[in-house]
Amino acid sequence: MNHAKLKPKSIAITAHPTVEQAFQIAKEISEFLEKKGIHNAYGLLYDKSLIQRVKAREFDILIALGGDGTMLRAGHLCAPLGLPIMGINLGRFGFLLETRRDEWKEAVRKILKKEYWLERRMMLCAEHWRTGEKLGSWDVLNEVVVSRGQIVRPVHLTTYVDNRFLTTYVADGLIASTPTGSTAYALAAGGPILPPESRNILIVPVAPHLSVDRAIVLSEGSFVSITVHTEHQAIMSVDGQVPIELSDGDEVKVRANDYNVEFVRIQDPGYFYRNLTPHMNRNPSTTNYAS
Question: Domain 123-258 classified CATH 3.10.20.580?
Answer without folding.
Answer: no
